Amino acid sequence: MLDPLPTLPVDTRGRPIHDLRISVTDRCNLRCVYCMPREAYGRDHAFLPRAELLTFEEIARLAGIFTRLGVEKVRLTGGEPLVRRDLPVLVALLAAVPGIRDLTLTTNGVLLADQADALAAAGLRRVTVSLDADDDDTFMRMNDSGVPVARVLAGIEAAEAAGLGPIKINMVVKQGWNEHAVLPMARRFRGTGRVLRFIEYMDVGHTNGWRLDEVVTADEILSTIDAEYPLEPMPPTHAGEVAERYRYTDGAGEIGIIASVSRPFCGDCSRARLSADGQLYTCLFATAGHDLRALLRGGATDAEVDADLRRAWGARTDRYSELRSAATLDLPKVEMSYIGG
Ligand SMILES: C[S@@+](CC[C@H](N)C(=O)[O-])C[C@H]1O[C@@H](n2cnc3c(N)ncnc32)[C@H](O)[C@@H]1O
Ligand code: SF4
């Protein structure tokens, strides 16, 4: 007989859990200046040893337990998820978990042309691809790894051909680095069915040396685009959506803005994050994780893990972005490449 349907937990602010972001590696083949600056992630950087990473079976088991708490949407991320060997094997395991209705992945696109078919065949639904400029000069300065725009565009095309569309494209805007690329990027992706989403540069981790004056705000980005291509707001597709939506009034499609610095959206945040080594984080800006790997490897049953997750989510109080101030800047936050965005 099936277990009775469990009640779904909410945290101390009444927020349910709906999305799970799973980081599958803390490694990456790029060194984006706002995420893994080369000075901090050089040759001698100590990445997680393989034995510390959750295995694919451990990840799928946890994902299955999370669905009993309300998770319906899973996003694979990293580091760069496509550098984890045999990723389609994990995708197939997750695609077979009954409660997962939406299975997606965020990637820098460098290895996407090679892997898109295998990922789609394994059951991946959609991909989000990061691209911070559409000219090589700016993009190579941002990724600090000599990767040209054409490489990422080839990944986007391969993903579309494999049925992984509609593709979302993430562009982080950092003052003094790529704000001049906002309009060219809007122009390039208007009318293509690909949804470009601009992300305010966030104070995740410490290695990027974030400063408030390096943030280009959502309002600045919107007015730059609106001056050339008029925009109007659109309703959200669902509660808790991170991107505000706007459409071009001439019918050339929509864009998104993720304004987590200038317009924080903690109030309806329903996301949990699992690091590659099995730590649960209930906020992107959390200072400490909750060790699920120890529980799994200590022999806990599914019911014990379920109860532990309910306790952890029920105790959740996070609303970092709403509290952001000089005092929060110095907190010992985890890095974006570890937790995955
Ligand atoms: C950490 S990456 C992981 C997945 C993959 N490597 C990629 O770049 O798409 C996830 C997303 O976070 C964004 N990101 C990284 N650091 C950021 C920061 N400091 N502020 C805002 N977005 C950031 C990236 O641009 C990317 O779109
Ligand atoms: S944003 Fe993604 S691609 Fe860039 S360094 Fe971070 S993990 Fe790598």
Keywords:
single chain; 341 residues; alpha/beta; twelve-stranded mixed beta sheet; 12 helices; 12 strands; 30% helix; globular; binds S-adenosylmethionine; binds iron/sulfur cluster
Sum up the overall morphology in one term. globular
Discrete helix count: 12
List SSEs in N-to-C order: EHEHEHEHHEHEHEEEEEEHHHHH
Secondary structure tally: strands: 12
Low-confidence stretches: none
Supply Rg: 19 Å
Task: Catalogue the ligands.
Answer: S-adenosylmethionine, iron/sulfur cluster
Major sheet description: 12 strands, mixed
Mean pLDDT: 93
Describe the structure.
By secondary structure, the protein is of the alpha/beta class. Helix content is 30%, strand content 16%. It contains 12 helices and 12 strands. It has helices at residues 56-67, 87-95, 112-122, 136-143, 149-161, 182-189, 218-228, 292-297, 302-314, 320-323, 326-329, 336-339; strands at residues 19-23, 73-77, 102-107, 126-130, 168-173, 195-200, 231-234, 244-248, 254-258, 271-274, 279-281, 290-291. It has a 12-stranded mixed β-sheet. α1 (56-67) packs across α9. It is globular and about 55 Å long. The two termini are 39 Å apart. The mean pLDDT is 93. Bound molecules: S-adenosylmethionine (SAM) and iron/sulfur cluster.
